[in-house]
Q: What sequence folds into this?
């Protein structure tokens, strides 16, 4: 084919002025750089994975061989169940297959609710010793201190059923158990007074059932509901009852959180003592007359309204009406 001599001859374009690197050469170099980078990344990621899962108290070392072959930096482990476990001094029959599986389910669930369980452990350090002292005053087993952990995560929440506070107490039940509940004062929001009220219920339920697992189940379903289930099904044990899903899981949720809090490292939770929330030193100001403005009151006491509300969540308004002969103790930082 003839070419027009007047047209310029096409040349390969150099990306670097004055250089001899062609487009093909440039692409080849880039490919090698990317490939080398990927190899380095893969090796680093694998080493990070090994270091993470072998960290003392995070994941037991016996699982390292299993996790080394995985592409994920954190392995999902099925944790062993304890060989035996008790609730309130009563043995849990783990030899029954469904009982074992129900505990297994709640334990694995709580092991993998990482942030939620971590904060629960931190809050428990502040509140459980105080609650345990009240339980012992009423001769209630220590294991019931774990009940508000599954009820509310140790937060002053209100449920869709209008159950309130750490112990999730209904208004009618609270009044029956001696708590003051008005527009201005709601003692269900006071963690320690609510514990006192819960102890009264638990003691009454134990007088009825004589079995602590049934007592715990009744806290969820009510004494009447548990009693009807026992009568209808002609059994005597919580572990033999066919129940609604929530009550069926209830005692096992308590057992799971008990096991994790008592043995955190065993289940992958490494929390240093300095990270745990501590009980805060408080002083109490006794009030026998109406306080029209709690904001001004808090400032006069050398605090502020935020701190007053933090330590007195049972005060529901920014004022406090005090009837004749009535006294309240308001907690403030010491």
A:
């Amino acid at each position: 084919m003839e070419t027009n001599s007047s047209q310029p001859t096409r040349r390969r374009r150099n990306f670097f002025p004055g250089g001899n690197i062609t487009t093909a050469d440039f692409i080849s170099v880039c490919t090698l750089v990317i490939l080398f980078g990927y190899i380095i990344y893969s090796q680093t990621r694998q080493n990070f994975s090994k270091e993470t899962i072998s960290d003392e108290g995070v994941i037991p070392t016996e699982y390292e061989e299993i996790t080394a072959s995985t592409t994920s930096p954190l392995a999902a482990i099925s944790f062993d169940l304890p060989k035996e476990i008790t609730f309130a001094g009563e043995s849990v029959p783990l030899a029954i297959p469904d009982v074992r599986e129900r505990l297994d389910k709640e334990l694995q669930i709580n092991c993998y609710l990482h942030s939620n369980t971590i904060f629960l452990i931190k809050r428990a350090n502040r509140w459980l010793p105080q609650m345990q002292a009240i339980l012992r005053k009423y001769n209630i087993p220590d294991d019931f201190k774990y009940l508000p952990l599954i009820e509310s995560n140790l937060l002053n929440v209100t449920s869709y059923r209008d159950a309130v506070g750490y112990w999730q107490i209904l208004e009618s039940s609270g009044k029956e158990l001696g708590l003051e509940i008005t527009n201005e004062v709601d003692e269900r929001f006071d963690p320690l007074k609510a514990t006192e009220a819960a102890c009264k219920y638990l003691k009454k339920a134990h007088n009825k059932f004589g079995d602590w697992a049934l007592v715990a189940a009744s806290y969820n379903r009510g004494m009447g509901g548990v009693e009807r289930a026992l009568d209808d099904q002609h059994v005597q044990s919580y572990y033999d009852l066919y129940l609604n899903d929530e009550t069926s899981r209830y005692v096992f949720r308590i057992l799971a959180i008990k096991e994790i809090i008592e043995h955190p490292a065993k289940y992958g939770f490494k929390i240093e003592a300095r990270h745990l929330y501590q009980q805060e030193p408080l002083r109490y100001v006794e009030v026998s007359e109406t306080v029209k403005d709690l904001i001004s009151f808090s400032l006069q006491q050398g605090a502020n309204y935020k701190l007053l509300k933090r330590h007195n969540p049972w005060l529901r308004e920014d004022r406090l009406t005090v009837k004749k002969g009535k006294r309240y103790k308001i907690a403030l930082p010491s």
User: Anything to note?
Assistant: Residues 22 and 28 are 10 Å apart (CA to CA). The first helix runs from residue 23 to 53. The mean pLDDT is 87.
